[in-house]
Design brief:
- The chain is α+β, with helices and mostly antiparallel strands.
- Helix content is 49%, strand content 9%.
- It contains 15 helices and seven strands.
- The chain has helices at residues 2-5, 21-35, 40-46, 55-61, 66-75, 109-127, 148-152, 182-199, 205-216, 224-231, 235-244, 249-267, 272-278, 284-295, 299-304, and strands spanning 18-20, 87-90, 94-99, 135-138, 157-159, 164-169, 319-321.
- The strands form two sheets. It has a five-stranded mixed sheet, with helices on one face. Strands 1-7 form a two-stranded antiparallel sheet.
- Helix 2 (21-35) packs across helix 6 and helix 13 (272-278) packs across helix 14 (284-295).
Length: 323
Amino acid sequence: MAHRYNFDLCSLEDARGVVPITAWHGVFEQVAETLGNDAVMFDLFNNIEIGCFSIFDYLFSCAPTLRDACQAWVKYMPIRSNAYRISFQETDTSGYVEWPILEGRGEWRQNMFARVGWATQQLEHALDMNVPPVLIELATYAPANTSAFQKKYQGRLKFGATHNRISFPRALLSRPLRRNDSHLYEIILKAAMSEMESFDQRESPLSRIANEVASSLSNGTCSLPQIASKLGMSQRAVQRVLEKEGTSFRKLSEEIRRSAAERYLRSTELPMKEIAYLLGFSELSTFSRAVKTWFGIPPRKVREAPTDTVERIGEPGGMSKSA
């Protein structure tokens, strides 16, 4: 796998080791494929022991309340990855943790199944509930196989959504967590802060660019000058980052748009006009021509084609801590 996805095995033994996020995604896909079970990641990571991911696990399980736990996830995410950030939001009725959709950086489906299995297990453990009242939304299609996790959360698991997130009733946010100990949690927070300072990880420049491009597609502001302005970088600085990674702004934008097109067509039931709009195409005919250029078949055929007949897409997009 290290050879196939071009990363150094030594990085797995190094506390400061990193692997490209495309490799991180790719390994999850390969394991599921080798095991012949595209739902296996749900169960593998829903049954993982608390503490497998070191201090990051205890930031959640030992927090005073569910709100504190979610906020700790957001604040200390750089301990785990500098390729993306998660978000936590509250509404009048609910709270939710959301993972960004990482377009153009390889197939992330199995990795997301693993993250959801792991995060839900954290909720189960912290709230002392076998099946907490959550809604799990995934912006990808349902697996062909069925896991024990899917059976457990039947009716609470939605595929083909527009987000990757877990929602729960707002009333739960103030609920004290069973393993909280104020003195222990202070120690955990100090350790987490020390680890943050040790890694000194910030979101990688390439990931910042790719994330901004992905979020800017639908409003038609996906040009180099506009993206550079949003990031507070000069156009030349953006170009240097991309050149260092062996790509260009045009190539990166095209790969992200192409990846998003495949996901929308294969993982959602959105109308073609809406997909074209979300990708920044003003005309459906322009979108159709672009899809045919990318995949050799029109959008309708991409949507109908078996998964293994559509070319999988991946482009380096940042670095992620090795698990």
